[in-house]
Amino acid sequence: DARVTQTPRHKVTEMGQEVTMRCQPILGHNTVFWYRQTMMQGLELLAYFRNRAPLDDSGMPKDRFSAEMPDATLATLKIQPSEPRDSAVYFCASVWGQGRTEAFFGQGTRLTVV
Amino acid sequence: AQTVTQSQPEMSVQEAETVTLSCTYDTSESNYYLFWYKQPPSRQMILVIRQEAYKQQNATENRFSVNFQKAAKSFSLKISDSQLGDTAMYFCAFMKLGSSNTGKLIFGQGTTLQVKP
Fold first, then answer.
1. What is the model's pLDDT at position A100?
2. DSSP code of A81?
3. B47-65 pLDDT tens trace
4. Distances in Å between the alpha carbon of A21 and those of A13, A25, A45, B113?
5. Sign of the alpha-carbon torsion through A100, A42, B68, B30
Protein backbone atom coordinates (compact mmCIF):
# COMPACT_ATOMS: atom_id res chain seq x y z
CA ASP A 1 0.00 0.00 0.00
CA ALA A 2 1.97 3.01 -1.29
CA ARG A 3 1.66 6.11 0.84
CA VAL A 4 3.44 9.30 1.79
CA THR A 5 4.86 9.00 5.29
CA GLN A 6 5.43 11.99 7.52
CA THR A 7 7.14 12.09 10.88
CA PRO A 8 6.46 13.10 13.53
CA ARG A 9 2.65 13.17 13.52
CA HIS A 10 2.63 15.67 16.38
CA LYS A 11 5.28 17.99 17.74
CA VAL A 12 5.12 20.42 20.65
CA THR A 13 8.11 22.65 21.08
CA GLU A 14 9.15 25.82 22.82
CA MET A 15 9.63 29.06 21.00
CA GLY A 16 13.17 29.41 19.70
CA GLN A 17 13.78 25.68 19.30
CA GLU A 18 14.67 24.03 16.03
CA VAL A 19 12.03 21.80 14.46
CA THR A 20 12.63 19.26 11.71
CA MET A 21 9.78 17.54 9.88
CA ARG A 22 10.41 14.59 7.60
CA CYS A 23 8.63 13.16 4.62
CA GLN A 24 9.09 9.93 2.70
CA PRO A 25 7.39 10.29 -0.69
CA ILE A 26 5.88 7.39 -2.57
CA LEU A 27 8.61 5.37 -4.27
CA GLY A 28 9.01 6.56 -7.84
CA HIS A 29 7.35 9.93 -7.34
CA ASN A 30 9.73 12.64 -8.49
CA THR A 31 7.92 15.75 -7.26
CA VAL A 32 7.50 16.59 -3.58
CA PHE A 33 5.52 19.45 -2.08
CA TRP A 34 5.30 21.04 1.36
CA TYR A 35 1.97 22.65 2.25
CA ARG A 36 0.96 24.40 5.47
CA GLN A 37 -2.59 24.45 6.83
CA THR A 38 -3.79 27.06 9.30
CA MET A 39 -7.23 28.26 10.28
CA MET A 40 -6.53 31.76 9.02
CA GLN A 41 -4.68 31.06 5.77
CA GLY A 42 -6.05 27.65 4.85
CA LEU A 43 -3.75 25.43 2.77
CA GLU A 44 -0.80 27.21 1.22
CA LEU A 45 2.17 25.95 -0.75
CA LEU A 46 5.51 26.50 0.94
CA ALA A 47 7.97 24.81 -1.41
CA TYR A 48 8.39 22.00 -3.87
CA PHE A 49 11.07 19.86 -5.46
CA ARG A 50 11.36 17.96 -8.70
CA ASN A 51 14.00 15.28 -9.03
CA ARG A 52 15.34 16.57 -5.70
CA ALA A 53 16.00 20.06 -7.08
CA PRO A 54 14.10 22.96 -5.48
CA LEU A 55 11.72 24.51 -8.01
CA ASP A 56 9.90 27.08 -5.96
CA ASP A 57 10.17 28.10 -2.32
CA SER A 58 8.57 31.51 -2.65
CA GLY A 59 5.85 30.58 -0.17
CA MET A 60 8.34 29.97 2.60
CA PRO A 61 9.68 32.54 5.09
CA LYS A 62 13.33 32.43 4.09
CA ASP A 63 14.80 33.70 7.31
CA ARG A 64 13.70 30.74 9.42
CA PHE A 65 12.47 27.99 7.11
CA SER A 66 14.53 25.68 4.97
CA ALA A 67 13.56 22.70 2.83
CA GLU A 68 15.82 20.04 1.42
CA MET A 69 15.80 16.65 -0.29
CA PRO A 70 18.96 14.86 0.75
CA ASP A 71 17.92 11.89 -1.37
CA ALA A 72 14.94 10.69 -3.40
CA THR A 73 13.35 9.00 -0.39
CA LEU A 74 13.55 11.87 2.09
CA ALA A 75 12.37 15.47 2.17
CA THR A 76 12.87 17.68 5.20
CA LEU A 77 11.37 20.95 6.36
CA LYS A 78 13.24 22.75 9.08
CA ILE A 79 12.25 25.77 11.16
CA GLN A 80 14.92 27.56 13.15
CA PRO A 81 14.11 29.34 15.37
CA SER A 82 10.46 28.38 15.72
CA GLU A 83 7.80 30.93 16.68
CA PRO A 84 4.23 30.54 17.96
CA ARG A 85 2.88 31.76 14.59
CA ASP A 86 4.45 28.66 12.98
CA SER A 87 1.88 26.50 14.76
CA ALA A 88 0.04 24.69 11.96
CA VAL A 89 -0.34 21.35 10.24
CA TYR A 90 2.40 20.75 7.69
CA PHE A 91 1.62 18.41 4.83
CA CYS A 92 3.94 16.70 2.44
CA ALA A 93 2.58 15.53 -0.92
CA SER A 94 4.15 13.68 -3.80
CA VAL A 95 3.31 13.27 -7.46
CA TRP A 96 4.56 10.99 -10.19
CA GLY A 97 5.40 13.75 -12.60
CA GLN A 98 4.92 11.97 -15.91
CA GLY A 99 1.48 13.06 -17.02
CA ARG A 100 -0.26 12.25 -13.75
CA THR A 101 -2.19 14.90 -11.86
CA GLU A 102 -3.09 13.40 -8.50
CA ALA A 103 -1.08 14.60 -5.53
CA PHE A 104 -0.87 12.04 -2.71
CA PHE A 105 -0.73 13.59 0.73
CA GLY A 106 0.81 12.40 3.95
CA GLN A 107 -1.14 12.62 7.18
CA GLY A 108 0.59 15.81 8.19
CA THR A 109 2.65 16.97 11.15
CA ARG A 110 0.74 19.02 13.68
CA LEU A 111 3.21 21.53 15.08
CA THR A 112 2.52 23.53 18.22
CA VAL A 113 5.01 26.16 19.28
CA VAL A 114 4.49 27.44 22.82
CA ALA B 1 -2.78 34.90 -10.07
CA GLN B 2 -5.37 32.22 -9.55
CA THR B 3 -7.81 32.27 -6.65
CA VAL B 4 -10.31 29.72 -5.41
CA THR B 5 -13.33 30.70 -3.32
CA GLN B 6 -15.60 28.49 -1.27
CA SER B 7 -18.35 30.67 0.10
CA GLN B 8 -19.93 28.12 2.44
CA PRO B 9 -17.82 27.65 5.58
CA GLU B 10 -20.20 25.05 7.02
CA MET B 11 -23.00 22.88 5.74
CA SER B 12 -25.07 20.05 7.08
CA VAL B 13 -27.21 17.38 5.47
CA GLN B 14 -29.35 14.50 6.64
CA GLU B 15 -28.10 11.01 5.95
CA ALA B 16 -29.27 9.68 2.55
CA GLU B 17 -30.02 13.16 1.22
CA THR B 18 -28.19 15.17 -1.42
CA VAL B 19 -25.97 18.17 -0.79
CA THR B 20 -24.11 20.55 -3.11
CA LEU B 21 -20.91 22.35 -2.18
CA SER B 22 -20.02 25.48 -4.12
CA CYS B 23 -16.70 26.63 -5.52
CA THR B 24 -15.75 29.48 -7.80
CA TYR B 25 -12.33 30.31 -9.16
CA ASP B 26 -10.59 33.03 -11.04
CA THR B 27 -7.98 32.43 -13.72
CA SER B 28 -6.89 33.68 -17.09
CA GLU B 29 -5.73 30.19 -18.06
CA SER B 30 -7.73 28.18 -20.57
CA ASN B 31 -6.33 24.77 -19.69
CA TYR B 32 -6.29 23.58 -16.11
CA TYR B 33 -7.56 20.96 -13.69
CA LEU B 34 -10.00 21.28 -10.84
CA PHE B 35 -10.22 18.97 -7.87
CA TRP B 36 -12.26 18.27 -4.79
CA TYR B 37 -10.32 16.91 -1.82
CA LYS B 38 -11.85 15.52 1.35
CA GLN B 39 -10.22 15.92 4.76
CA PRO B 40 -11.87 13.80 7.47
CA PRO B 41 -11.00 14.24 11.15
CA SER B 42 -7.99 11.97 10.61
CA ARG B 43 -6.43 14.90 8.65
CA GLN B 44 -5.70 12.71 5.63
CA MET B 45 -6.29 14.59 2.36
CA ILE B 46 -8.17 12.33 -0.02
CA LEU B 47 -8.88 13.07 -3.66
CA VAL B 48 -12.60 12.84 -4.32
CA ILE B 49 -12.90 13.86 -7.94
CA ARG B 50 -11.05 15.73 -10.68
CA GLN B 51 -12.15 17.62 -13.78
CA GLU B 52 -10.11 18.59 -16.81
CA ALA B 53 -11.14 22.02 -18.04
CA TYR B 54 -10.99 20.97 -21.69
CA LYS B 55 -13.64 18.31 -21.10
CA GLN B 56 -17.21 19.51 -21.27
CA GLN B 57 -18.58 16.38 -19.65
CA ASN B 58 -18.96 16.62 -15.90
CA ALA B 59 -16.88 14.14 -13.91
CA THR B 60 -18.59 11.54 -11.72
CA GLU B 61 -17.25 9.10 -9.16
CA ASN B 62 -19.95 6.89 -7.68
CA ARG B 63 -22.04 9.16 -5.41
CA PHE B 64 -19.93 12.22 -6.19
CA SER B 65 -20.43 14.40 -9.24
CA VAL B 66 -19.50 17.89 -10.27
CA ASN B 67 -21.22 20.69 -12.13
CA PHE B 68 -18.47 22.39 -14.09
CA GLN B 69 -19.41 25.71 -15.67
CA LYS B 70 -16.27 26.96 -17.39
CA ALA B 71 -17.63 30.29 -18.55
CA ALA B 72 -18.96 31.08 -15.11
CA LYS B 73 -15.78 29.67 -13.47
CA SER B 74 -17.87 27.55 -11.19
CA PHE B 75 -17.15 24.03 -9.97
CA SER B 76 -19.67 22.59 -7.51
CA LEU B 77 -19.62 19.16 -5.89
CA LYS B 78 -22.80 17.14 -5.47
CA ILE B 79 -22.89 14.32 -2.96
CA SER B 80 -25.84 11.98 -3.40
CA ASP B 81 -27.13 9.56 -0.79
CA SER B 82 -24.98 11.19 1.90
CA GLN B 83 -23.36 8.84 4.38
CA LEU B 84 -22.03 9.47 7.88
CA GLY B 85 -18.53 8.80 6.54
CA ASP B 86 -18.86 11.81 4.25
CA THR B 87 -18.52 14.08 7.29
CA ALA B 88 -15.34 16.01 6.59
CA MET B 89 -13.90 19.27 5.37
CA TYR B 90 -14.01 19.56 1.59
CA PHE B 91 -11.50 21.59 -0.38
CA CYS B 92 -11.81 22.80 -3.92
CA ALA B 93 -8.45 23.11 -5.68
CA PHE B 94 -7.08 24.50 -8.94
CA MET B 95 -4.05 23.37 -10.88
CA LYS B 96 -2.58 24.90 -14.02
CA LEU B 97 -1.83 22.57 -16.87
CA GLY B 98 1.77 21.77 -17.70
CA SER B 99 4.42 19.41 -16.39
CA SER B 100 5.97 22.11 -14.23
CA ASN B 101 2.65 22.61 -12.46
CA THR B 102 1.75 19.00 -11.77
CA GLY B 103 0.64 18.75 -8.15
CA LYS B 104 0.96 22.49 -7.53
CA LEU B 105 -2.47 23.15 -6.06
CA ILE B 106 -4.26 26.34 -5.10
CA PHE B 107 -6.89 25.58 -2.49
CA GLY B 108 -10.09 27.24 -1.41
CA GLN B 109 -10.75 27.86 2.27
CA GLY B 110 -12.77 24.69 2.68
CA THR B 111 -16.34 23.76 3.56
CA THR B 112 -17.03 21.70 6.66
CA LEU B 113 -19.77 19.19 5.93
CA GLN B 114 -21.65 17.42 8.69
CA VAL B 115 -23.85 14.47 7.81
CA LYS B 116 -26.51 13.95 10.44
CA PRO B 117 -28.10 10.58 11.23
1. 67
2. S
3. 999 999 999 899 999 999 9
4. 12, 13, 16, 30
5. negative
pLDDT tens digits for range A1-46: 679 999 999 999 999 999 999 999 999 998 999 999 999 889 999 9
Show which of residues 91-110 on chain A sit within 8 Å of chain B, judged by CB atoms.
91, 93-95, 97, 99-103, 105, 107-108, 110
**Out of A55, A103, A108, closest to residue B43 by CB:** A108
Residue of B nearest to A38 (CA): B109
Closest CA to A21 of A37, A32, A10: A10
Q: CA-based angle A106:A109:A99, to the nearest 5?
A: 25
Residue A97 has pLDDT above 80, yes or no: no
Asked if B44's CB is within 8 angstroms of A91's CB, the reply is no
A6 CB within 8 Å of a chain B CB: no
| DSSP H helices in chain A | none
